[in-house]
């Protein structure tokens, strides 16, 4: 049994024959050397002999050589250290590689053939497509032939109907496409990207909505359409990834259809775009147009009636917009698009809609990036649109204008000590001191108070600075002040003008008097520098000689120094002494206090001046010496005795002396004198007349103290003066008096009021009848005491009533109307008028608040109609009455102006019929007569009618001060446009119109009016603005005249009638003294021009000519930065028509300025500076219009062509200059580039920027911009300011560039300049590099051909790169089989042994031939990793030595060397460094 079993086993189990593993190659290809490392057991091998030695000691092979210690190391070492060892080894290896390459077979020729097409019947075609859909059927079987016949939608239906897997469908379509294009592939112009035609846009007029409604209404067709659309999208994915669709063509198609589709299609296009958006995000031309399309669709959705059905589409579009903003914010840098859709984009980019799709990302970081990008986009767009410009910093000139406005605001109510004019900064103090001194004397400013205000301000600063220097123990300001005052006196052009020498002498006389300017040091400095022409006998004449002769002095030491400096030390009698004697003689002949004086009553101040010619022509030094050392002591002595003697000549002499001091501006002297005068009314009038000067002299406290003393003196006598109490309250202004003193004054005023009008307790006052016949009877009562008797009687009878004064005035006017019938003679009527005037003066004394308020209330009430009906005789009587009351102070000048004059002018200006004009003729003539006397009269009548003499003229001057102060001056300037309308009302008689015009011109000449104008510029602006708004649509001619009247107010020669469209030169146009006034003029002028230009009215051509002249004044002068800023402020807010004229003229000027052909660096820099300042004006002129793009004016085509051509030429010039730029010119070069870029941005923002000429030049300009941007992007030329500016300018240009042809296909890349990716160097910052790459016209290639290019070797063996590899749609149509080495048994080689890996046959059967890549046999193979065990893997790799990737051809640094190399052990010293 057992034997049987053995034989059965022996026959069943074959003998084992040892053989190497299939993966082990032989040791040699031809020689029988066995296998490396393979030693199989064999019969009778020595290891199998079980001898005693082997059993006891183990088996050991005998030594190969007899000498155990013999070694070849010395010979090998000697050979390795030889001189030619490396060369021999290199030669050995070269021979090894050469023999290997000789034994390797060549690459076989490509045997790939596209599967042919066959025509199959329908059943076979259906079966074939069913097999294609069946994954179990290999493509080898189907690849023998493919069916032919179905195309387009039918082919797509077959694939979708059979539900063919996408990879197999792509294979079929590759084969199908290769067969279709077989005839075209060999043509030189063949482009594989044109193989597949994309769907075209729907036909115009096709109702997409109805089409979809018909398809989607039925459930079956809807389901089929959805399946087909889904299959198309899946197929498109593979097509896009494998390059079957050209990315650029496809993405352009998506962008174009998004911009042209309707809302029904937008949802589908948006979903396609969302999937393939990555291809756009790196390309700005595509992204920009797609953003525009998306924003347009969002805007359309927001206005759509079907908005609720488009929520998903709207949300997807917003997500797409946000994704583009995250990846490529440059796509949103398009100023005009941003201007149109900024609000929509802000809302979309701020909306939090991306969170559901970004669950794995940091949404907060994304929101922050979006916010940062949105802010950057807004900043860049607004910068190119010149929006939200910073406020104009006018620096020094702006500060000067504010300081001048502050100085001009000084009035009689100003507390001079509260004005903070100077600062602690000495440099600023120098400028302000120069400004203050010039303000005092310039003829462009008005007011005698200016020198006194300047001295007080300087004194207050010196006091503060001295106290600060004491606290800080630093230098006293006296030295600084002395030097600055001397410098101004020595160098100021204004101070050297002989016309202002009187004011300069007054100013420095006060400075010397207040010890602010050292007269001794002044003379010492002049002598020390040997001032030529200082002494009178010198032939030349120094300006300081005039200053020494005119500056007033009071100290004897100063007078002696002056005498020596002017006349030398030896002269005894000086010319001033003789002049003083002659001046005294003139004054003696005028003042009544001197014996032998003239008995003629002086009628006017001009008559006084005419009688004292020597005094008025003398220097101020002589005038002050005559007044102070001689006249005032005599007058003071006479005044002390005037009260006891009752001599009226003293009072008259005092008034004349005050007038002389006013002419010489010796107000400090007159103040000291008048405060000691006994005539209270005269003193009050003089205080009121020069109230502003007292405030500037800081003398109000002294005056108040004196007035309080006078009040107490009069009060002690039992006499109260309402005028004195009112003056004290007015000067106090609730600020200067102590609380107790103020309460006492108010108590005295209340007691005085109760005394005149007691309160009735438990008893009604006596009613005043409407008619008081006793007032009419006064006309026939010639008793001198009758007026006072009647006034006393009425007061005693009706003093309890509150309206008795009003009814007295009403009855007086009624009585005046009866006088012409009672007294026919003019002299008798005027005597009656004076009688009633005295009566009303007594009434005024019996009223607590005076008669003025009651008269004004009557004028504004029933008297408004009564005065218009007065007869000429009555007006003559009323005029005498009113003027007498004003002179005596019973009525205010403002009451007459408000109650009579202004209403008369208004009625005359509004008269629209001849009847109305004739009724207003008398009223208007009487009003004009009143104005001429109250405001303009400088000559007495020398008759009973006031003003009779110089003393009445003085009183009228006091009364009219209120007209030019607040709150009455704004009312006056409000009536100036009314006067102009009156002048142009042809219904009014010519004589009255000429009379009104003369009044207006005379008002302009009055310094009080001009001082009030500069003090109340805002009131003037408001008045004329209101008038211009009323006249704009009614009478253009009157509007023109009104504008001329406004400019005439600020004219240096207001007596001349300025032409309507005239304009001053730059010297006065931009002076700091007139610039505020000029601002008002220019703004109104431009508004008037806007009306004329926009309506093309009667003055259109004249307006255009005037605008041209105005812009020439602005642009043709070299403006400083401050002046340009102020001109810019003036021109802001103008309308579109005027702005268009200014901008076009400005561009013409810029064309001439920057277009100068010169190589002089200085001229180029000057032109750039002038262009920059003028450009700033244009920027701010256009800024308000940019809020509404429709308001932006169009550019003149001729001007635009010239300007654009100049810009192109200059860009090309700086581009050429950049190639030879050195460091010395770099700064100037950069400024010019920035200016040119900003000019181009400004130009592109207007309509009319594109003409045939500019369109033809824009491509060259874009190339120059791109080159300049590259120039500033890297290396030593890198500029982080210029590069973004140029890049944004380039984007603005290409976005606005018009298409060359309306019929051309949509191409978003067409406007971009040609760019070469090789020009982008590696030293460009990554952010800028990304921006530049986004402009490249090419998109990233398909992955299979990315970064591949065809190349060849030339005759010298150098590799020459040719065209990039084009993705061939048919190149992937081969059936890919695995050619990897398998672990299966290989076919046997020669001798029955397994064939080595190197002998595995190589095939060249792919659709891409191996020849394309220059492939060749190497004899090496790459083994797959068969196990995860590194030990086994290492053993396997060891046996693959010479054939694997670890072979000798892999180099020493191969994977085997790394795998077998022992890891070095770290030392203790190295471990801390590694941790660090």
Quick overview of this protein structure:
With 1476 residues, the chain is mainly α.
Topology of this protein?
Elements: H1 2-12, H2 52-57, H3 73-80, H4 85-103, E1 117-119, H5 122-133, H6 139-142, E2 146-148, H7 152-161, H8 166-180, H9 208-217, H10 219-241, H11 247-260, H12 263-275, H13 278-281, H14 284-303, H15 311-327, H16 335-350, H17 363-385, H18 395-408, H19 426-441, H20 450-472, H21 477-491, H22 501-513, H23 519-528, H24 543-550, H25 556-567, H26 575-588, H27 605-611, H28 613-617, H29 620-645, H30 648-663, H31 667-674, H32 680-689, H33 691-696, H34 700-716, H35 722-732, H36 739-756, H37 773-777, H38 786-798, H39 804-822, H40 826-845, H41 852-860, H42 863-866, H43 872-888, H44 893-910, H45 914-934, H46 950-959, H47 969-974, H48 976-983, H49 990-1005, H50 1007-1015, H51 1017-1031, H52 1036-1049, H53 1066-1069, H54 1075-1095, H55 1100-1115, H56 1121-1131, H57 1136-1154, H58 1161-1182, H59 1197-1218, H60 1226-1244, H61 1252-1271, H62 1282-1296, H63 1326-1333, E3 1349-1353, E4 1359-1364, H64 1430-1439, H65 1455-1460, H66 1470-1475
Helix pairs in contact: 7-10, 8-10, 11-12, 11-14, 12-15, 14-15, 14-16, 16-17, 18-19, 19-20, 20-22, 22-24, 23-25, 26-29, 29-30, 30-31, 32-46, 34-35, 35-36, 38-40, 39-40, 39-41, 39-43, 40-43, 41-44, 43-45, 44-45, 44-48, 45-49, 48-49, 48-52, 51-52, 51-54, 52-54, 54-55, 54-56, 54-57, 55-57, 56-58, 57-58, ...
């Amino acid at each position: 049994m057992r034997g049987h079993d053995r034989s059965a086993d022996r026959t069943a189990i074959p003998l084992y024959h040892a053989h190497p593993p299939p993966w082990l190659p032989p040791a040699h290809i031809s020689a029988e050397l066995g296998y490396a490392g393979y030693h199989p057991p064999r019969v009778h091998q020595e290891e199998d002999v079980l001898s005693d030695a082997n059993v006891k000691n183990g088996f050991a092979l005998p030594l190969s050589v007899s000498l155990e210690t013999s070694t070849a190391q010395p010979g090998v070492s000697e050979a390795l250290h030889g001189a030619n060892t490396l060369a021999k080894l290199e030669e050995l290896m070269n021979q090894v590689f050469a023999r290997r390459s000789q034994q390797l077979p060549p690459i076989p020729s490509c045997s790939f053939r596209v599967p042919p097409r066959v025509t199959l019947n329908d059943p076979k075609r259906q079966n074939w497509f069913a097999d294609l859909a069946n994954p179990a059927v290999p493509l080898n079987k189907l690849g023998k032939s493919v069916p032919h016949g179905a195309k387009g939608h039918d082919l797509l239906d077959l694939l979708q109907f059979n539900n063919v897997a996408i990879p197999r469908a792509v294979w079929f379509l590759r084969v199908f496409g290769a067969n279709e294009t077989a005839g075209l592939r060999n043509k030189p112009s063949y482009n594989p990207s044109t193989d597949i035609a994309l769907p075209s846009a729907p036909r115009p007029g096709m109702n997409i909505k109805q089409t979809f409604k018909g398809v989607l209404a039925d459930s079956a067709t809807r389901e089929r359409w959805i399946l087909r659309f889904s299959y198309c999208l899946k197929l498109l994915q593979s097509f896009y990834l494998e390059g079957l669709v050209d990315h650029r063509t496809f993405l352009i198609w998506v962008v174009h259809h998004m911009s042209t589709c309707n809302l029904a299609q937008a949802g589908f296009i948006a979903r396609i775009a969302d999937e393939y958006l990555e291809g756009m995000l790196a390309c700005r031309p595509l992204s920009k147009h797609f953003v525009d399309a998306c924003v347009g669709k969002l805007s359309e959705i927001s206005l759509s009636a079907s908005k609720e059905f488009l929520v998903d589409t709207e949300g997807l579009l917003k997500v797409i917009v946000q994704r583009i903003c995250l990846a490529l914010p440059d796509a949103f840098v398009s100023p005009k698009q941003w201007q149109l859709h900024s609000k929509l984009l802000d809302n979309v980019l701020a909306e939090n809609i991306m969170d559901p799709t970004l669950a794995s990302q940091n949404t907060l970081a994304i929101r922050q990036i979006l916010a940062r990008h949105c802010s950057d986009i807004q900043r860049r767009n607004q910068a190119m649109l010149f929006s939200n410009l910073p406020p104009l910093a006018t620096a020094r000139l702006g500060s000067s204008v504010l300081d001048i406005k502050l100085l001009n605001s000084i009035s009689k109510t100003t507390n001079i000590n509260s004005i903070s004019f100077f600062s602690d900064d000495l440099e600023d103090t120098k400028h302000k001191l120069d400004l203050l001194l010039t303000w005092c004397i310039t003829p462009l400013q008005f007011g005698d108070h200016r020198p006194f205000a300047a001295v007080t301000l300087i004194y207050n600063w010196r006091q503060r600075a001295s106290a600060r220097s004491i606290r800080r123990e630093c230098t006293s300001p006296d030295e600084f002040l002395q030097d600055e005052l001397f410098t101004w006196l020595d160098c100021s052009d204004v101070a050297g003008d002989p016309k202002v020498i009187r004011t300069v002498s007054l100013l420095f006389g006060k400075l010397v008097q207040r010890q602010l300017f050292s007269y001794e040091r002044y003379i010492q400095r002049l002598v020390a520098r040997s001032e030529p022409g200082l002494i009178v006998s010198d032939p030349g004449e120094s300006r300081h000689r005039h200053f020494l002769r005119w500056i007033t002095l009071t100290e004897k030491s100063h007078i002696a120094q002056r005498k020596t400096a002017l006349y030398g030390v030896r002269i005894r009698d000086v010319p001033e002494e003789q002049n003083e004697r002659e001046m005294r003689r003139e004054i003696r002949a005028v003042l009544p206090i001197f014996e032998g004086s003239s008995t003629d009553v002086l009628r006017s101040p001009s008559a006084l001046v005419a009688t004292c010619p020597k005094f008025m022509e003398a220097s101020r030094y002589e005038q002050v010496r005559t007044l102070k050392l001689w006249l005032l002591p005599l007058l003071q002595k006479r005044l002390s005795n005037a009260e006891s003697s009752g001599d009226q000549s003293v009072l008259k002499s005092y008034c004349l002396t005050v007038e002389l001091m006013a002419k010489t501006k010796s107000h400090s002297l007159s103040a000291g004198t008048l405060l000691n005068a006994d005539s209270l009314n005269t003193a009050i009038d003089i205080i009121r007349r020069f109230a502003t000067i007292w405030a500037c002299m800081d003398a109000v406290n002294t005056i108040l103290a004196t007035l309080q003393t006078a009040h107490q003196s009069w009060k002690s006598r039992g006499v109260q003066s309402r005028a004195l109490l009112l003056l004290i309250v007015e000067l106090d202004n609730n600020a200067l008096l102590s609380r107790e003193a103020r309460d006492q004054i108010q108590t005295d005023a209340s007691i005085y009021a109760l005394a005149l009008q007691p309160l009735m307790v438990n008893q009604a006052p006596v009613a005043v009848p409407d008619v008081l016949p006793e007032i009419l009877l006064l006309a026939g009562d010639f008793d001198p005491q009758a007026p006072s008797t009647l006034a006393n009687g009425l007061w005693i009878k009706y003093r309890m009533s509150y309206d008795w004064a009003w009814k007295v005035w009403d009855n007086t006017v009624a009585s005046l109307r009866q006088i012409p019938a009672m007294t026919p003679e003019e002299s008798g009527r005027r005597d009656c008028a004076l009688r009633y005037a005295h009566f009303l003066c007594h009434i005024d004394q019996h009223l607590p608040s005076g008669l003025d308020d009651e008269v004004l209330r009557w004028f504004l009430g029933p008297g408004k109609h009564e005065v218009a009906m007065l007869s000429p005789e009555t007006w003559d009587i009323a005029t005498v009455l009113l003027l007498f009351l004003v002179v005596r102070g019973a009525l205010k000048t403002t009451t007459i102006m408000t109650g009579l004059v202004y209403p008369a002018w208004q009625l005359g200006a509004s008269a629209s019929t001849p009847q109305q004009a004739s009724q207003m003729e008398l009223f208007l003539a009487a009003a004009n007569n009143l104005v001429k006397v109250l405001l303009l009269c400088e000559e007495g009548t020398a008759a009973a009618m006031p003003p009779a003499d110089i003393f009445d003229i003085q009183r009228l001057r006091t009364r009219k001060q209120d007209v030019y102060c607040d709150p009455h001056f704004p009312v006056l300037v409000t009536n100036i446009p009314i006067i102009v309308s009156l002048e142009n009302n042809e219904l009014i008689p010519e004589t009255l119109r000429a009379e009104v015009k003369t009044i207006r011109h005379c008002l302009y000449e009055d310094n009080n009016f001009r001082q009030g104008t500069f003090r109340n510029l805002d009131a003037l602006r408001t008045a004329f603005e209101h008038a211009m708004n009323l006249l704009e649509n009614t009478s253009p001619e009157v509007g023109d005249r009104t504008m001329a009247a406004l400019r005439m107010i600020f004219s240096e020669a207001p007596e001349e009638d300025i032409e309507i469209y005239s304009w001053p030169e730059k010297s006065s146009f931009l002076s700091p003294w007139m610039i505020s006034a000029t601002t008002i003029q220019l703004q109104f002028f431009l508004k008037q021009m806007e009306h004329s230009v926009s309506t093309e009215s009667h003055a259109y051509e004249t307006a255009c000519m005037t605008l041209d002249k105005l812009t020439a004044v602005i642009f043709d002068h070299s403006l400083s930065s401050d002046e340009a800023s102020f001109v810019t402020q003036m021109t802001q807010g103008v309308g579109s028509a005027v702005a268009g004229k200014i901008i076009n003229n400005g561009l013409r000027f810029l064309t001439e300025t920057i277009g100068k052909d010169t190589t002089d660096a200085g001229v180029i820099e000057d032109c750039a500076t002038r262009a920059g300042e003028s450009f700033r004006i244009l920027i701010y002129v256009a800024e308000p219009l940019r809020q509404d793009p429709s308001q932006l004016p169009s550019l003149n085509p001729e001007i635009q062509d010239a300007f654009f051509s100049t810009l192109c030429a200059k860009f090309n010039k700086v581009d050429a200059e950049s190639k030879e730029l050195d460091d010395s010119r770099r700064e100037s070069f950069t400024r010019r580039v920035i200016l040119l870029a900003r000019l181009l941005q400004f130009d592109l923002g207007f309509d009319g920027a594109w003409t045939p000429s500019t369109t033809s030049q824009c491509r060259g300009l874009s190339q120059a911009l791109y080159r300049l941007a590259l120039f500033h992007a890297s290396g030593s030329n890198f500029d982080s300011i210029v590069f973004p500016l140029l890049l944004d300018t380039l984007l603005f240009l290409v976005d606005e560039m018009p298409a060359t042809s309306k019929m051309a296909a949509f191409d978003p890349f067409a406007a971009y300049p040609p760019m070469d990716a090789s020009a982008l160097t590696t030293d460009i910052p990554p952010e800028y590099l990304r921006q530049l790459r986004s402009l490249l016209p090419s998109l990233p290639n398909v992955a299979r051909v990315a970064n591949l290019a065809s190349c060849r070797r030339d005759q010298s063996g150098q590799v020459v790169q040719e065209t990039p590899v084009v993705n061939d749609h048919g190149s992937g149509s081969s059936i890919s089989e695995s050619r990897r080495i398998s672990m299966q048994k290989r076919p046997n080689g020669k001798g029955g042994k397994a064939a080595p890996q190197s002998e595995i046959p190589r095939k060249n059967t792919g659709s891409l031939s191996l020849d394309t890549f220059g492939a060749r046999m190497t004899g090496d193979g790459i083994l797959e990793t068969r196990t995860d065990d590194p030990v086994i893997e290492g053993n396997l790799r060891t046996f693959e030595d010479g054939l694997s990737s670890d072979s000798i051809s892999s180099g020493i640094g191969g994977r085997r060397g790394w795998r077998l190399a022992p890891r070095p052990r770290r030392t203790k010293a190295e471990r801390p460094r590694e941790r660090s």
